[in-house]
Amino acid sequence: MFKLDTRSRVAIYEQLMEQLKTLMIREVLQKDEQLPSVRSLAQELTINPNTIQKSYRELEREGFIYTLPGKGSFVAPLKRDANKDKLDELQEEIEKKFKEFIFLGGSKQELIDWLSNLENNEGGERR
């Protein structure tokens, strides 16, 4: 289910977060669905439970999941309207990066291809 690259410059907890977000956005993980326990996921992925806990904590802070004490972590319902400010902020950041990309010699078609790859690949790795 998860593909973690231990040689990547991206921290393992961030890789896990991004993959979980992708599963939630694509509705593979449904709202109110229980996530694997920290312990079981750590055993499955053979990584430190603290790494899983950090991912879950950050996902909760960002509003992607919620935790019920003694019961576990669950997928939060997507609140597209409630995230309008965050979406506007991200759009501004993306626009700045796109302008920088074009300025440095990237083409519009390269951006389109890259976005298509992001949409088609779970991890969104660059090719």
TrEMBL record:
The UniProt keywords, alphabetically, are: DNA-binding, Transcription, Transcription regulation
> So where does this one cross the membrane?
none
Question: Carries keyword DNA-binding?
Answer: yes
**Limits of the HTH gntR-type domain:** 10-78
Organism name: Salipaludibacillus keqinensis
Molecular function terms, GO-annotated: DNA binding; DNA-binding transcription factor activity
Cited InterPro entries? Tscrpt_reg_HTH_GntR, WH-like_DNA-bd_sf, WH_DNA-bd_sf
Q: What is this protein called?
A: GntR family transcriptional regulator
One Pfam family here: GntR
Q: Which CDD domains match?
A: WHTH_GntR
Decide whether keyword Cytoplasm is in the record.
no
Name the domain of life: Bacteria
